[in-house]
C-alpha cells in the first residue's frame, strides 16, 4: 500500500540554521505530495504542496521539490526561526479516483534562540 | 482561511461511558469530513470518512459500532465513542474538505484529547 516515511525527531536547531526534513514515499499510483505543520495546541495547516514530478512547493520560506526518481519530497528552509518550532507532517494523496491522505509519523522541530 | 473547530478540546471520562466529539466547519461547507486517530509519536490514522447525509465509510479494523459517526449537516460531523475503555484513550482529529476548493484541500481541527479512566 501507500506509505510515507519521515526522519524521526526531534530536530533541534539554533535560530538561522538551515533545515532539512527528509520524506520519502511509496505509492501505487501518481500522488500529490504535501507538507502540513502542527503548531502546539493547534490543528494541522497545509504548508505547501506539489502535484507532479519536478514541481516545487514553497511557502513562508519553506521549499520542497517533488522528486519522482528518488520518490522524495524533502522539506528545506534556509534560515529557521523560533516561531518555526512545530511538528511537520509529510503526506500524499493519489490523484486518480477517490483517495485519502496518507501521513508520515511527523517530525518535531525545536528551534532555540 | 478556512477554520475547523472541535469540541471539546479534551475530555476525561470513566470506563463504560460514551463520549461525543463535535467537528464544525466554521466558514465553509464540507460535504466530506474525515476522522483521524493519533497515538503519541505516531502518524495520523484515518478512521472513517463521513459524507453529509449518508453513512460513514470506515477503514479496515475500525469498529463502526464502537465509533459512531454522524454527518447531519454541511458544517457538522460528530464522533461518538461508545462504551469507552482505556485503550480508546487517544488524540482524535477531524478534517473537512471544502467542496468548492478541490478534492485535495482539507482543513484540520485542533484535535480532542480523550482520556478514559
Describe the structure.
The complex is a heterodimer of chains A (113) and B (117). Chain A is mainly β. Chain A is 0% helix and 51% strand. Chain A is built from no helices and 12 strands. In chain A, a hairpin with a 2-residue loop joins strand 7 and strand 8 (62-65). Chain B is an all-beta fold and 117 residues long. Chain B is built from no helices and 11 strands. In chain B, strands 2, 4, 5, 6, 9, 10 and 11 form a 7-stranded mixed sheet that branches. Chain B has a 4-stranded antiparallel sheet with strand order 1-3-8-7, with no helix packed on it. Classes of the chains: A mainly beta (113), B mainly beta (117).
Give the SSE layout.
The complex is a heterodimer of chains A (113) and B (117).
Chain A: E1 3-6, E2 11-14, E3 19-21, E4 23-26, E5 31-38, E6 44-50, E7 56-59, E8 62-65, E9 75-77, E10 86-94, E11 102-103, E12 107-112
Parallel strand pairs in A: 2-12
Antiparallel strand pairs in A: 1-4, 3-9, 5-6, 5-10, 7-8, 8-9, 10-11, 10-12
Chain B: E1 4-7, E2 10-13, E3 19-25, E4 30-38, E5 44-51, E6 57-58, E7 67-73, E8 76-81, E9 90-98, E10 106-108, E11 112-116
Parallel strand pairs in B: 2-11
Antiparallel strand pairs in B: 1-3, 3-8, 4-5, 4-9, 5-6, 7-8, 9-10, 9-11
Overall 3D geometry of chain B?
Answer: globular
Secondary structure: number of strands of chain B: 11
Residue ranges of chain B: pLDDT <50 for 5 or more in a row?
none
Q: How many strands, which pairing sense, and closed or not: the largest β-sheet of chain B?
A: 7 strands, mixed
Span between termini of chain B: 37 Å
Question: Briefly, what is this?
Answer:
The complex is a heterodimer of chains A (113) and B (117). With 113 residues, chain A is mostly beta strands. Chain A contains no helices and twelve strands.
